[in-house]
From TrEMBL:
It comes from Olea europaea subsp. europaea. This is glucan endo-1,3-beta-D-glucosidase. PROSITE patterns: GLYCOSYL_HYDROL_F17. Residues 1-26 form the signal peptide. It holds the Pfam family Glyco_hydro_17. One of its GO terms (cellular component) is side of membrane. Keywords: Cell membrane, Disulfide bond, Glycoprotein, Glycosidase, GPI-anchor, Hydrolase, Lipoprotein, Membrane, Plant defense, Signal. InterPro entries: GH (IPR017853), Glyco_hydro_17 (IPR000490), Glyco_hydro_17_plant (IPR044965), X8 (IPR012946). Its EC number is 3.2.1.39. It is found in: Cell membrane. Residues 365-449 form the X8 domain. GO terms for biological process: carbohydrate metabolic process; defense response. Belongs to the glycosyl hydrolase 17 family. GO terms for molecular function: glucan endo-1,3-beta-D-glucosidase activity.
Length: 482
């Protein structure tokens, strides 16, 4: 009897521990690589493991990433870039080769735990003008067939990461949700297919963008810590737009006969720079709020239970297009070099994020405006334009981390961005009579003047023609200026 009691207690404890570990392990992260100085894949995999991130979503299927993930135990979603959809839609053989090369090989011989293939990335986004409307579903079908043929159809599932704009609601109540009329027929075909193959629906949900696009969007409704005018949807109470958005999708699925389709939140997060609402404080509030919100496995009013989600993003990417906005390069919970930005508890690590290890920076050197330079020098404007068009100046401007810089500091920031991006080549700090290299960190308050990290390109120099190039460009710009 005593033994039985003990066993029961131990069993409960083990069960509780298991549930805790399970909760801790439920968060994923997006690992994008549109960066001029990416961390080595092995460093990123260690970063994921050190921080208890058990799932990773990639935007392609580069073998060096997959090799680094070998034996890591991390679940992987590989991706097919939109520009491959046409080929994969039109050629089952190409789909078979893609699966063979980019999935089977790694799953079967390399012990990479690939669980999903993301076919395209937000292919129905309106900015693509319908380019991928007719190819995405056929590509999905061909990849599914190829997975079955390769004998891994039960283990690896297909999905399409979609922007939440494929569905909508006529009021703020999720129960009025449905697919957008122009998308409905295609979406119903896709979800029928997904249901047939037990594939999940993947949606990217961005309360930050709601706020960015609409000055009247209720600020607190973007977050998870209470909202003064909750939305009552026939008894379901919504205090945050994430739940409401997610449940709008649940209603859309349900109305079209697939209320049980599983849902993955492919991207969710908050940027830290490049906009008045993009900063550490709000990113911390959102991401920590989201973690607490999903940690109890309460789910949403329409879908109680665990929420399967991938944070966007793991690391900043300084080469992303800023067409959506300057915030686009600042989604990381880590800076480009793997330094944590703010205190974030991802479940297990109560002490907050753990930085990347063994990261090698370039020497502590910055390129700045020479103290003797004249601000009225006609070369200043073209030089700054030159630097900022080739490097990242998205931390300058209204509402950013560097908004309080004076004119000299502004110019220095631009010069340094270019100099660092060019791996601190001497020739990249020769803005005519304007720039000088210094060894004291010119960072001001929250505004960080970066030092880049070493990459395989940065070790062996190169860029011999750079000085001539700068001078030429500056002169040319100056002529257009006249
Ligand atoms: C595998 O994926 C990579 C990266 O997306 C791609 O460049 C390559 O073409 C793919 N291989 C095949 C055989 O399709
Ligand atoms: C979509 O159309 C707009 C306006 O016609 C054009 O500027 C843009 O380049 C197009 N985008 C793509 C991806 O084709
Ligand atoms: C949906 O799931 C519920 C609970 O698991 C089940 O009772 C129901 O039959 C399912 N409905 C469909 C359409 O599969
Ligand atoms: C610094 O640069 C930003 C962005 O180019 C600009 O908006 C701001 O006015 C500049 N500040 C000063 C003091 O020149
Ligand atoms: C740099 O300054 C010197 C002295 O003021 C001047 O002679 C020279 O033309 C300047 N060079 C450039 C590229 O502006």
């Amino acid at each position: 009897m005593g033994l039985l009691g003990l066993n029961f207690v131990m069993g409960t404890k083990i069960l509780m521990l298991f549930m805790m570990v399970n909760t801790v392990h439920s968060i994923g992260a997006n690992w994008g690589t549109q960066a001029t100085h990416p961390l080595p894949p092995s460093t990123v995999v260690k970063l994921l493991k050190d921080n208890g991130i058990q799932k990773v979503k990639l935007f392609d299927a580069e073998s060096n990433f997959l090799n680094a993930l070998r034996g890591s135990g991390i679940e992987v979603m590989v991706g097919i870039p939109n520009d491959m959809l046409y080929t994969l839609a039109n050629s089952p053989a190409a789909a078979e080769r893609w699966v063979e090369r980019n999935v089977s090989l790694h799953v079967l011989s390399n012990s990479v735990d690939i669980r999903y293939v993301a076919v395209g990335n937000e292919p129905f986004l309106s900015t693509f003008n319908g380019t991928y409307l007719s190819t995405t579903f056929p590509a999905l079908q061909n990849i599914q067939e190829a997975l079955i043929k390769a004998g891994i159809g039960n283990r690896v599932k297909v999905t399409i990461p979609l922007n939440a704009d494929v569905y909508q609601s006529s009021t703020e109540q999720p129960s009025t949700g449905d697919f957008r009329p122009d998308m409905r027929d295609l979406m119903v075909e896709i979800i029928s297919f997904m249901s047939l193959h037990a594939a999940p629906f993947t949606v990217n949900i961005y309360p930050f963008i709601s706020l960015y696009n609409d000055a009247n969007f209720p600020f607190d409704y973007a977050f998870f810590d209470g909202y003064s005018s909750p939305i009552n949807d026939n008894g379901n109470i919504y205090t945050n737009v994430f739940d409401a958005n997610y449940d709008t999708l649940v209603w859309a699925l349900q109305k079209n006969g697939f209320g049980n389709l599983s849902i993955i939140v492919g991207e969710i997060g908050w940027p830290t720079d490049g906009d008045q609402n993009a900063n550490m404080r709000l990113a911390q509030r959102f991401n920590q709020g989201f973690m607490s919100h999903i940690s109890g496995n309460r789910g949403t009013p329409m879908r109680p239970g665990p929420v399967d989600a991938y944070l966007f993003s793991l690391i900043d990417e300084d080469a992303k297009s800023i067409q959506p906005g300057n915030f686009e390069r600042h989604w990381g919970i880590f800076y480009f070099d793997g330094t944590p930005k703010y205190n974030l508890r991802l479940g297990g690590n109560l002490g907050g994020l753990i930085p990347a290890s063994n990261v090698r920076h370039l020497p502590r050197r910055w390129c700045v405006l020479s103290p003797s330079a004249n601000l009225q020098d006609p070369q200043v404007i073209p030089s700054v334009n030159y630097a900022c068009s080739r490097a990242d100046c998205t931390s300058l401007g209204y509402g950013t981390s560097c908004q309080n810089l004076n004119a000299q500091q502004n110019i220095s920031y631009a010069f340094n961005s270019y100099y660092q991006e060019k791996n601190q080549l001497d020739s990249a700090c020769r803005f005519p009579n304007l720039s000088v290299i210094m060894k004291n960190d010119p960072s001001v308050g929250e505004c960080r003047f970066k030092i880049m990290i070493q990459t395989s390109n940065s070790r062996n120099g190169g860029f011999l023609s750079e000085p001539v190039n700068i001078l030429l460009q500056v002169i040319m710009l100056w002529f257009t200026f006249l």
